[in-house]
Each structure stands twice: as C-alpha cells, then as structure tokens.
Design brief:
The complex is a heterodimer. Chain A has 14 helices and no strands. By secondary structure, chain A is mainly α. Chain A starts with a helix and ends with a helix. A two-stranded antiparallel sheet of chain B has the order 1-2. The chains are: A mainly alpha, B mainly alpha. At the A-B interface, helix 1, helix 4, helix 5, helix 6 and helix 7 of A face helix 2, helix 5, helix 6, helix 7 and helix 10 of B.
Chain lengths: ~300, ~300
C-alpha cells in the first residue's frame, strides 16, 4: 500500500513537470511580447537586459494606439465580427438541425458536401469568387457587366448567411452532431401540441442547444476577428484591426520621416499584437469556463 | 385550408419537405458560392485569363498552365515536395502530443482549469496576421538566443539537453540513425507542434469525457492494471477520433496561411506567374491533398473500433 502511494506521488510530480513545461512553451512568447512592449529601443541592444526593461516606457503603446487607429478599427472589427458570427451561427444551426433531425434522401449528400467544403483549400475558389463579386450580375434581372460588390460588406454577408463562410463546414458538423445526440421526446411533445417544425426548432430545441451555440459563435467570432486573408481580398479598404496592425509600424516611421531598424519594427509589431489580442483575451477570460466545458458537453465526438 | 392540406401529407413527405427547407440556405450557397466558382476555377486553370474593367475573358490553352507549374516553374515542385515531407513529419507528432496532452488534462489535479485554458490559448491567438508578423520577428529570436545561452549555463527546465547531448544520448541507446534525426528535428519543432494542437486536444478531450466510467469499473473489478485499461479501453474508444484528428491536422497543415506553399500560390496569383498558373498550382495542390487524405483515411480506418 505504501509503495503504491510513493508511485502515485512520483507520477503526480512528473505530471506537473510536463504540464508546467508545456504551459511555459505556450506562454513564453506571449510574456516575451508583453515584456518587450514596455522597453525602449536601446534596451534591445543592451546585452544585460533580458526580461526586465531598463528604460520603462509606454511610448510604444501610444504610438501603436494612434497608428492602428485603435478605437475606430476595434469598433469596426468587433461590430463586423459580431454580425458575421451571428449570421454564420444562424445558418449553420439551421442546416445542422435539418441534417440531424429530418430523414430525406439528399441529407447524406448535403452533409458530405458540407465536409467537402472544408477540404478544398480556399485558394482554389477565391479568385473566381473575387471576379463574381467584382462583376456581380443576376441572369435576367441585372445586365451583364454587373455591379461591383467588392469593398463592401455584402460578400461576407452572402457567404455567412448561406453557411459557406470560413470553416462553416465544421460548424455544420458540430451542430449536426449536437442535435443528433439530444433526446427526441421534447420535439415529439411539441409536435403533438401542434407546433410546426420551425416553432419547435426555435422554442424547444434552441434553448437546450446553448452549449453548442456558444462554441460555434465563439469560433466564428474569433476566426472572423483574426481574418486577414478574406477581408484583404474582398474588402481591402475596410478599417479593421487586422489590417491596421499590419501597416501601423510602417505608418509610424513614415509620419516621423525616418526608417526604423528591424529590431524596433518587431518591438512595435509586438506591442501592436498585444493591443490586437487584448479584446480576444478579455472575451476568452469571460467565457473560457463555458467554452471548455461546452466543448465537452456538445459531444462533437458523437 | 393549408393546415388541412398539410395534414394529408404523409409523415415521411413532411419530414422531407422540412429537411429540404432547413438545409436550403446551404444548398443555395453551396451551388452559387462554392460549386460554381469551383468549376470556374477549373476553367481558369485551363485557360489564359484577362481582366478588364468591363469583365474578364478566357482563352483556352489546355494543359499549358499545368505544364508551366510543374516543369517550367523552378520553385513549385520543390515547395510541394517540401510541404509533403514537413507534413509527414509534423502530423504524427501533433497527433501523439495532443493524445497524451488530452489524457493528462483529463486527470484530476490542482490547477487543471488553468492548464486547460493555457493549452487552448493557441487556438485563439493564432491569427494569420500574427503568424505572418512573427515569421519576421527579431525580438523573439533575440530573447530565444539569450535564454538558450542562460539555460545552457544553468541547465534549466526545457533545455535539459543541448542538441549534441541529445544526439549522443540517443545514439548511445542504439536507436537507428533515421529515428534519431526524426526525434531531434521533432524536438526542435516542439513549440510549433504544441501551438498547432489546440483543436485536436479538445476533440480528444471530448472523446475521453464520453467514455462510460462503468467500462473502467468493470475492468478494475476484473483486476486490470492502469496500463491494460489504457490499451484495452481508452485507446480503442478513442480510435475513431484519431482518424478525425488526422484528417483535421492534415487539412489544417495544408491550408494554414503561414504554409510557404500557400503563400507562394497567392504571390503568383497577383503578379508572378499569373492567374492561370496560380490556379493550376492550386488544383495540383488540391488533388495532392485529396489523394493523401483518401490514402491515410483508408489505411487507418480499417483498424478503427466503432461502437455503434
């Protein structure tokens, strides 16, 4: 019995060692960014400065705050991501529910197609989509050259509302698995009481689906907030945080009329990245408990 | 009136109608914003594309773009091969790491919530803009260098062995040369691997939670050890998820914007070799991924245990 206790103790220590070192690997780059964002340029070349800034300064933050157009860009990014995430949530939940609960011949095919959209690299369809949005026309309704939908919110709205946005196949998959695993008796009761499919879905099924809804919403929100590729393609003029971050350091140098050294540009970029992730960290801080638990309860696994 | 007519429909038909209605948004979106561009892009890859302010014109050129991509472009075949090799190296490591990490995180210990939050952070923080900036980051490299120096002199956690020590230790263990190289390069990739394992850990974790505890109780009563429980219960029960995770990891690896091949194709699309060649490159890449996925999924799913 005593031997067992000793082995358990050793295993416990080993476990902590492994977990602490992995956490260290993940957190270290973040810490390095935070620490360096308070340094002045000369600290970078000072061999004796490692973790603690010698010349503490908030100047980097001030500069990046101004040149990232922080308040406007943040507001735009948050509002845009919120809208797109809600649209994706609505469409993917509807589709996922339809695939999970109604038996019809095309269901298997539609599900397979949803998975297929995940496998195809976005580079394949991005150029044709770009041209279709550039020369947007509807046969018999709008004449051929069409209108330019680029540099507007519409490409994103169309794609989100139809469940073909970024990684939406995954959301459809998550929602389908969730509804497949939830009990049927509530719905049957609702049907007997005379509710139609839509009423049953909204009033009976959605309230029980909150864990899955939260995780899909958060994924959609975070991925839209982080997106650089699609917004850069279809809406390059948008003042979004991921784009202003990209050019902020260069703009700062330009406004001073100088060139910065590579190290200093990285320093500014690091500061910008902290400003960029800060809202996500706050969001994650508020929801992490819910998030991680709900992943388990959604039964993504099925 | 309509209520009357509806009630005459059989349950089957009504279900089918509802099913189609619920999935309609996706079907429309798939046809217009996926299938149609998908076919268009195949056409583009087989033609010369010219864009003007009035629209675009296509001139059929057959397989010329493909020929260009494969035989005339010096970079593309090399990058394709490199990406494949890198993927073959990283995906197994990601899989093994996320498997054991999820088992660790599933156990009871103090600070488990904190550990889970940290393990999941990379999913949130791996925006492509950040990855893009970090690839040109001096400061991390600078801090890395100074810390490695420090660690080498003090022997701190994380770099207990230097590269040379690790190699000689592994050689001393009489491991084959290739395996030694694999382990050493793998250990240098640890940060990348940990950072790209977030979603996989979550999927495994969800799987672990869904294993019924009664299975373990029975095994324990029958006198099974922890080791036996792991190989007889945990591993087979998680095996369907191994396939899911392999597929996810491969797709994630191939489509992540920091992947040099993806970057290369994009830079060719606007400038460089031009639209047609870039589309041909994307198609070759896609066919390559698809074949790869089919092969791996086919090989592995035979050994999977499904509990239906």
């Amino acid at each position: 019995m005593k031997r067992k206790y000793v082995i358990g103790f050793i295993i416990g220590i080993l476990r902590y060692l492994v977990i602490v070192s992995i956490c260290y690997v993940i957190l270290r780059p973040l810490l390095a960014k935070i620490v360096s964002s308070f340094m002045m340029e000369q600290d970078l070349y000072d061999q004796t400065v490692k973790w603690i800034p010698r010349n503490f300064t908030l100047e980097n933050y001030r500069a990046m705050y101004v040149h990232m157009k922080y308040l406007i860009a943040l507001r735009n990014s948050l509002a845009f991501s919120l809208l797109i995430a809600l649209l994706q949530l609505a469409s993917c939940t509807l589709v996922g529910y339809g695939l999970a609960r109604f038996r019809f011949r095309a269901a298997k095919l539609i599900f397979a197609l949803a998975i297929f959209t995940l496998i195809v690299p976005p580079q394949i369809i991005i150029l044709p989509l770009y041209l279709n949005f550039r020369f947007f026309s509807i046969p018999f309704v709008m004449p051929k050259p069409g209108i330019n939908l680029l540099d507007s919110i519409w490409p994103f709205v169309f794609m989100a509302a139809s469940g073909t946005g970024f990684n939406n196949g995954l959301f459809i998959y998550i929602m389908r698995q969730f509804f497949k695993n939830s009990p049927k008796s509530l719905e049957e009761a609702a049907y007997i009481d005379g509710a139609n499919a839509m009423q049953t879905f909204v009033r009976v099924m959605l309230p029980g689906a909150v864990p899955a809804l939260v995780i899909v919403f958060l994924f959609a929100f975070v991925w839209q907030y982080n997106d650089y590729f699609f917004t850069g393609m279809y809406w390059s003029k948008a003042v979004l945080l991921s784009h202003t971050l990209d050019v902020a350091a260069a703009n700062y140098a330009y406004s001073l009329g100088t060139h910065f050294r590579g190290h200093y540009i990285s320093l500014l970029n690091n500061t910008g990245m902290i400003l960029f992730i800060l809202p996500l960290l706050v969001l994650f801080g508020f929801t992490q408990r819910y998030f991680i638990e709900s992943v388990e309860r959604t039964g993504i696994v099925g | 009136m309509s209520r009357k007519r509806r009630s005459r429909l059989s349950l089957r038909t009504r279900e089918a109608i509802n099913g189609h209605l619920f999935t309609l948004p996706f079907v429309i979106g798939f046809i217009l914003m996926f299938l149609f561009p998908f076919i268009q892009s195949m056409m583009f890859s087989l033609s010369k594309l010219e864009i003007s302010s009035q629209g675009y014109t296509l001139t059929w050129t057959g397989l010329e773009n493909y020929h260009n991509a494969l035989f005339i472009n010096a970079e593309y075949p090399r990058l394709l091969l490199e990406t494949a090799v890198q993927m073959l190296r990283d995906v197994p490591l990601i899989l093994v790491f996320s498997f054991f990490a999820s088992i660790l995180l599933n156990q009871q210990f103090k600070g488990r919530l904190f550990a889970r939050v940290v393990f999941f952070l990379p999913v949130i923080l791996s925006a492509d803009i950040i990855l893009r900036m970090e690839s040109a980051d001096y400061i991390s490299a600078f801090l890395d260098a100074s810390l490695a120096e420090e660690a080498a002199s003090q022997g701190t956690l994380g770099t207990i062995f230097s590269r040379g020590q690790l190699v000689s230790l592994l050689m001393y263990m009489k491991l084959p040369q290739q395996l030694v190289t694999y382990i050493v390069t793998g250990s240098e990739q640890i940060a990348t691997i940990i950072r790209s394992s977030g979603v996989q850990i979550l999927i495994f974790l969800a799987g672990l939670q869904s294993i019924s505890p009664s299975l373990f109780e029975v095994a324990k009563i029958e006198g099974a050890t922890g080791w036996e429980c792991f190989w007889m219960i945990t591993f087979p029960m998680l095996s369907p998820l191994i396939v899911t995770n392999i597929v996810y990891s491969i797709i994630d690896f191939f489509t992540i914007p920091s992947n040099p091949l993806v970057d290369f194709i994009e830079s060719n699309m606007f400038g460089g070799a031009g639209y047609g060649v870039a589309m041909a490159m994307s198609w070759l890449y896609f066919v390559f991924i698809a074949l790869f996925l089919l092969l791996t999924a086919g090989l592995i799913s035979r050994r999977v245990v499904y509990m239906e």
